[in-house]
Amino acid sequence: MIKVIDDWYITVEANPINYVVRHGDGEKDKNGKMKDRGIAYFSTLRGAVKFIRGQIIAEELSDGLRTLGDAIADIDKANERFELLMAKIES
After folding, report:
1. 9-42: per-residue pLDDT in tens?
2. Which secondary-structure segment (H or E) carries 75?
3. How many CB atoms lie under 10 A from the CB of residue 19?
4. What is the per-residue pLDDT across 44-91, written as a single tens digit (0 to 9) for each?
5. Taking a C-beta distance cutoff of 8 angstroms, is the pair 1, 19 a contact?
6. Helices and strands, number each (H, E), in the chain
């Protein structure tokens, strides 16, 4: 399991390789299966992280009323957080 940010994480399945985006606490059931359902599947880690970025931005913008300037500021803030994560993936 790869903890990405907040309560978002990625699990990796082999053969074929899938990066599974999940949202929650990361607990497993008594059979060892993840309790949080897979939200999206990707062939690359980068794709999975980009998806999480989009989801966090969408959730932020769907909550309440804001001006266009405030919305852009919220997007910029999320982008800054994820730029740091992506830089770590690339290095």
Report:
1. 999 998 889 999 999 998 999 998 889 999 999 9
2. helix 68-90
3. 21
4. 988 998 899 999 999 889 888 899 999 999 899 988 888 887 787 666
5. no
6. 2, 4
Task: Collect all residues with Cβ–Cβ distance below 8 Å to 78 and sequence separation of at least 6.
Answer: 53, 56, 57, 60
Residue 91's pLDDT is: 60
Give the C-alpha separation, 60 to 55, whole Å. Answer: 9
DSSP of 21-35: EEES---B-TTS-BS
Query: 45, 10 in Cβ contact below 8 A?
Result: yes
- Counting every residue written for the chain, the total comes to 91
Mean pLDDT estimate for the chain? 90
